[in-house]
Structure formats: C-alpha cells, structure tokens
Amino acid sequence: MEFRAAWMGYWGGNSLNICKHHILHLSLLAECYRSPLTGKRNYTYMQAVQATLGGKMYVACGVAQYALQIGLIIGYTIAAAISMVAIQQSHCFHRRGHEASCQFSHKPYMIGMGLFEMVVSQYPTLEKCGGSRLWHQLCLLGHGKRTTLTGIEVGPGLTAAQKMWRMFRAFGDMLICCSYSAVLIEIQDTLKSSKSEIKVMKKVDMMTALIMTFFYLLCACFGYAAFGNNAHGNMLTGFGFFEPFWLIDLANIFIAMRLLGAYQVLTQPVFVAAESHIRKRWPKSKFITREYPISIGKINLNLNINFFRLTWRTMFVVIANLLALALPFFNEVLAFRGAISYWSLTVYFPVNMYIAQNKISCKTLRWFGLQAMNLACLLLSLAAACGSIEGFGEALHIFKPK
Question: Amino acid transporter transmembrane domain location, by residue (predicted)?
C-alpha cells in the first residue's frame, strides 16, 4: 500500500481506497444469494449469475473467476519464491556484509514449490487448506523522508508518461484487495437459513469494508510517511536486509508457508470443476473414472490414484510454474489480475443482477446511477490493465535472467 501511495500521493491513493471500498459496501451481490421469486438458494457466484442473467453470462463469469484464480496461483508462486530468496539474501548479507553481491535465482524455489504442489494436488479434495495468516508490518527506525500530497514528482529520471503508467499500475495493485467478492456468495451460504440472512450479510459486508479501508489506509499512510518516495513494492525484500534479520526471515517463512496452502485453496475449485465436467462427458472411460487404492504392504494409506487426475493436475501445475518462471514480476502480475477481476466480479455482474432482480427500468435515475458507476469502474480497470501491460514491457526490457 505504501508503494501505491508513493505513486498516487496521499490524495489519490487514499481517495481511491475509500471509493473502491464504498463500492464494495453497496452489497448488491449479497441480495443475489436467493431468487426473489422462488427463494431458491444460489450456492455459488456462477449459479447466481446463471439464474439471473442466463447461460452466456454464466460462461463469462466462469472465465472471469477462473482467470482470477489462475492469476493468483501464478502470483503466489512468484511471491513464495521471492520470500525464500529474501531469506537466502538476508543470511548472505548477515555473514558477508551489505557490500557483498548476494544475488540468487528464484528458479530453484519456483521449481521446488511446483514439485511440492504436484504431490499435494493429487488429493481428490482438500476441505481445509492453508495455515495461519500472518499480518505483518515492518517496524524499522527510519530517518525523515520527503513526501508529497500528489506522489512522486515528475523530474530527472521520471517523465510525465512514466508517472501516469505507474499510477495506472498502482490502481490495479489496489483493486486486487477487493478480490474476495468472487467468494462472497459462498461465504453467505454458510449462514443459517433465516429471513434476515441478507441483512446479516450486509452488516458483515459493511464491517469488512470498514476494516479493510482502515487497515489499508494505515498501511499506506504510515508506510509512505516512513519511507516517502523511496517506498518499495515489497517492504520485506526492499528494506528487509537489516537487523533484526531473524524477524524478517520469520515473516518471510510465514508468507511462504501460507502461500503453499493458499495455492491448493485456489487450485482445488479449478480441479473439481474441470474433472466434474470431464466425467459427465466421458462417464464410461476407465482412464477418467477408475480409482486405484494405494497401500504399502497391509497398510492402507486412504489415498486413491486416478490416472486422469494425475495427468491433468500435474500438467496444470507445470504450466502454472512455467508461466511464473516466464513472468517473475510480482507487482505487474498483481496489478493485471486486479484490473481484470475488479470490474467484472465486483461491479459488472452484481450491478446487472441487481437491475434484473429488482426490475429497474431503463432511463430511470437509479438505472443511470448504477450504469455510471459501472462505466467509471470499467474505465478504471482498463487504465489499470494498460498500466500493468506497460509494466510488463518495461520489466522485460530491464530483466536479466539469473
């Protein structure tokens, strides 16, 4: 957040933070959990879209959701490797001093993570995955930094065009914070059936928006105040090679551990959806449907191997890792997936489902207001996508493989 504030300034960064969470708080999606006519539940986001907007929008929603999940998987692979390399660099600097050239490749860690996920992904389902979440902030003694209300100023080494593109990229980084909209209906499905479940979900949504806004504003304001225009995209790797180095290492270890589990949380829905579709298409194929139990002697491991699952899941992990190896630019990946998911999943589908369910007629003031918000968020997402694509080009231009 402090890195985004460095490019957008206090006014721009904080204003966007408040606006995007206010839009999230509108809770239009919470009202799409049940059909207003029949009261039938929609257990997933895609079911809600299919019931309200039809089959074509159902397909579009699936593409948007799975694109977001795959983007997150690639980003998690990159982030975990960055954290592990940071630990190695920290120990190198601690032993040899900060003048030493401690440059290490991310590739071995990405490959190692891929091998680990290949094995873990063979479990048919993973009901509970992911460990404790460590919300960490660096508390380092800093010296005075110059900050501005409008972010990093144009001058030597930074043209107006470069600042504009990086501001757009910062938009995408901030929009990814709203990605939980993709699972909001699934969360709502955990509430007990009652007449007030929508009211309960709206209260939860309001509290979530307030807490997220407050948390991100604190990160942005204090981080920017501490580091100013030199704020780094990843604080743990940008300024994390000083004492106490063990504390930074611990934070990076927890990040890597969390991402290993979160990887499976994201991939399992993709695996299950694809395998369910394939089984319906070819129900008599032994390659697809037959399960082979695994045992060591007389010991049953309670694990079955399915050749289709083994082949397809391994290929998925390999392709995801190859993409992560080809695009080792964490901030650019973060911005791009934020751009493509925010407008579609947080704004477009909820707005159109709300209009359809409440039968809001065209050319009314309410309809114009919703469509104006829809258009504004679309333009913001397009700007963020353009900024992240430009960032990919810039990163590829200066990237030197290790």
Answer: 27-389
Distance of CA 109 to the CA centre of its chain: 21
Tell me, what amino acid is at 106? H
Global model pTM greater than 0.90:
no
Largest CA distance in the chain: 73
Spans of all domains in the chain: 2-398
- The segments of the chain whose pLDDT lies below 50 read 1-12, 14, 18, 22, 25, 126-157
3-state secondary structure 266-291: HHHHHHHHHHHHHHHHCCCCHHHHCC
Q: How far is CA 103 from the centre of its chain?
A: 28
Tokens representing 299? Answer: 């010991």
What per-residue confidence (pLDDT) applies to 294? 77
CA geometry: angle at 207 spanning 205 and 209, to 5°? 70
Residue 318: per-residue pLDDT: 93
CATH 1.20.1740 is held by the domain 2-398: yes
pLDDT at 290: 85
Give the single-character DSSP code of 121: T
